[in-house]
Amino acid sequence: MLSVADYQGDWQLQLHDSYPATARWRVVVPEQPNIADLARAQDCLMQQQLGDFQWLCASKTGLWMLQHHQQQWWLTFWSAAPPALSRHWLGTIISHHYTELYELSLIESNYSAKQLFDYGKFKWGQRRPLLREIAHGQYHLQLQQPMEELFILQLSHASLLLRFRSRAPTAGAGEF
């Protein structure tokens, strides 16, 4: 599992809940966490800032998310090798979380990152996708109607997808 002892600096974390593939901590100190500290400690292969209050980091061991919710900072980790939860046409959903406005899924796929990116261009063409290759083996797809973002990372044995989508009802919203 995960050890937060890897952190350099003055972070103090309080374990909130822990499962075989996931752990979540409340950030006690500092009041305003420095994302650079976390990125350095976790050796991020890919990272993305989502607005002012959410940050994602894909590392060799899994996926990290730092978010501000209800006046507190939370750090969540999803292991890259947890037990499978359910199947999806993209692959195996290994973690799925809901908030009032968003849903977040972590999916492991046997398809390469490039195959998933190319298929996304074809499948979601009508949703006005913004597509870009962030770095070799790392892709970002941003879709409209409903708002949805996919971050795709090529690992040595599979691809890891982070799907972040709005739960707000939108006219003409289709099935993912």
Describe this structure in words.
The model is unreliable at 170-176 (pLDDT under 50). Strand 3 and strand 4 form a beta hairpin. This protein is mostly beta strands and 176 residues long. The protein has two domains: 4-79, no CATH class; 86-166, no CATH class. The protein has two helices and 13 strands, in the order E-E-H-E-E-E-E-E-E-E-H-E-E-E-E.
**How far apart lie the N and C ends?**
31 Å
The whole-angstrom Rg is: 16 Å
User: Can you give the helix content as a percent range?
Assistant: 10-25%
Low-confidence stretches: 170-176
Element pattern in H and E: EEHEEEEEEEHEEEE
How many separate domains make up the residues?
2
Summarize model confidence as the mean pLDDT. 77
Number of helices: 2
| Major sheet characteristics | 7 strands, antiparallel
Structural class: mainly beta
